[in-house]
Design a protein that fits this description.
Elements: H1 2-6, E1 19-23, E2 28-32, H2 37-44, E3 54-56, E4 59-63, H3 73-76, E5 84-90, H4 105-121, H5 126-146, H6 185-210, E6 215-220, H7 232-254
Parallel strand pairs: 5-6
Antiparallel strand pairs: 1-2, 1-4, 3-4
């Protein structure tokens, strides 16, 4: 596949395409709209901590989600008739749950072996990992409790996060907080990824408010963690269901 894609230029595609990357050297967003398709895709998918960056001259290119997790502007600039955006950081989709797809026994065995191997290469203290997991679960429960089911179908502008001090229930005192000591490598990586997810969620909300798409497909972020690529079949099935429901609502509104 790499050989085939590597021989294709973006400008030769039948459908206009833009790959968005982030230039860490110059701290700016990069749009690739011509040239080698493979290199553009590789740069735009270089997720920090997972894939190595792509160098172009003095530019160090990584996943464009660092600066823009929902790149609507490149589509707006192409003057298209209908803009459909897929938001992977939605928080107001309580009715959707990840479907259960049974894996073959052989696959489960290979996956368990892989997880065990990764665990031996990324040692961390069990107690601290459990502590971090507990904190994350509490945060997710609190988030679910705050979500208003009436937000479904509300304009994106009204879904903007309030500033922290003004948000109802937000703590104003640091009393009672504690420091987690000696976080192991795997736990530290997980913290970095959680911080990255928080940043992406906030950026996506502001991008939607600034450039509202015609159709917004909201995929709840709670159904999958950062490194859970093995959930691809379930996520694909869920994505199809959400997209189908969203398009049905759009057609009903237009009709």
């Amino acid at each position: 596949i790499r050989k085939i894609v590597g021989e294709i230029n973006i400008e030769d595609l039948r459908i206009p395409y833009t790959a968005v990357a982030a230039d860490l050297t110059n701290q700016q967003e990069i749009w690739f709209q011509e040239g080698c398709l493979h290199q553009a895709m590789r740069a735009s998918a270089a997720i920090p901590s997972l894939f190595t960056p792509v160098m172009q001259g003095n530019r160090m290119l990584v996943d464009g989600g660092i600066l823009n997790p929902l790149p609507i502007v490149p589509v707006v600039s192409s003057h298209c008739d209908l803009i459909i955006a897929v938001n992977l950081n939605a928080t107001n989709q309580r009715q959707y749950k990840l479907p259960v797809i049974e894996r073959p026994a052989a696959f489960r065995s290979r996956f368990d072996s892989l997880i065990k191997s990764m665990g031996s290469k990324l040692p961390f203290r069990r107690k601290q990992a459990e502590q971090l997991l507990k904190l994350e679960q509490e945060a997710l429960r609190a988030e679910a409790a705050e979500i208003n089911p009436w937000l479904e179908g509300v304009e994106p502008e009204s879904q903007q996060p309030a500033s922290a001090p003004e948000r109802e229930g937000a703590p104003k005192s640091a009393t009672g907080s504690f420091i987690i000591d000696n976080v192991g490598p795997a736990s530290l990586l997980d913290l970095i990824n959680q911080s990255f997810e928080v940043m992406q969620t906030s950026l996506a909300q502001y991008k939607i408010a600034g450039y509202p798409p015609d159709i917004l497909i909201n995929v709840p972020k709670r159904v999958c963690r950062f490194f859970e690529f093995y959930k691809a079949p379930e996520l694909i099935a869920l994505g199809r269901q959400i997209a189908s429901d969203t398009l049905d609502r759009y057609e009903q509104e237009q009709g």
